[in-house]
């Protein structure tokens, strides 16, 4: 056997700005045609290593409890693991009937959970990381915009549960950037100042530095302005279906 044939197959990982790889699959909520059927909505596609595991249990209960909050900002949830459909159904029933965690009880997971026993979808999205496991998907998070483009990718190892406040913040920040043509600084939360694009001319830069616009400049390349939370959320929620 040649050295070439002995090399492990390395699956490519979609990058920020790429069109989300398309697929059809069976889920706990029926068949899915992704991402075509989600055109017009933001989507969080996320994977977990396995059903009937404790970290994944805590995550799914949290995601399910936050689903109405995500829906309010026009964002849908889609889960995936390489377990089969009947395993998914049994596990989700267990969450609802047996698990009480951090005040969450009788939690029903209503968003689709993809069956991926062939690992076809997991491989398309680079969710199989050989250094972590050859047979389980890592905790991947893909934020996909209404036009089907990948806008954020976050990976966690199997031992680390996700920060759901951060995932929600990411979606709101991306929507804010798109709607108001701004950027968001470190640790930004809705209501904090946003960053405006650098001045396009010396005259604009001078006006900003002299305070002639409603913009605060620390230097010509770093300027911020106020954008209140109510304005942001009103604009974002207008798109919710």
Structural description of this entry:
The structure is a single chain. This protein is an alpha+beta fold and 241 residues long. It has two domains: 160 residues, Glutaredoxin (3-Layer(aba) Sandwich), CATH 3.40.30; 62 residues, Antioxidant, Horf6, Chain A, domain2 (Antioxidant, Horf6, Chain A, domain 2, 2-Layer Sandwich). It contains seven helices and ten strands. The strands form three sheets. It has a five-stranded mixed β-sheet, with helices on one face. The chain has a three-stranded antiparallel β-sheet with strand order 8-10-9, with no helix packed on it. Strands 1-2 form a two-stranded antiparallel sheet. Helix 5 packs across helix 7. It is elongated and about 65 Å long. The N terminus is likely disordered.
What descriptors fit this protein?
2 domains; disordered N terminus; Antioxidant, Horf6, Chain A, domain 2; elongated; alpha+beta; 5-stranded mixed sheet; 10 strands; 3-stranded antiparallel sheet
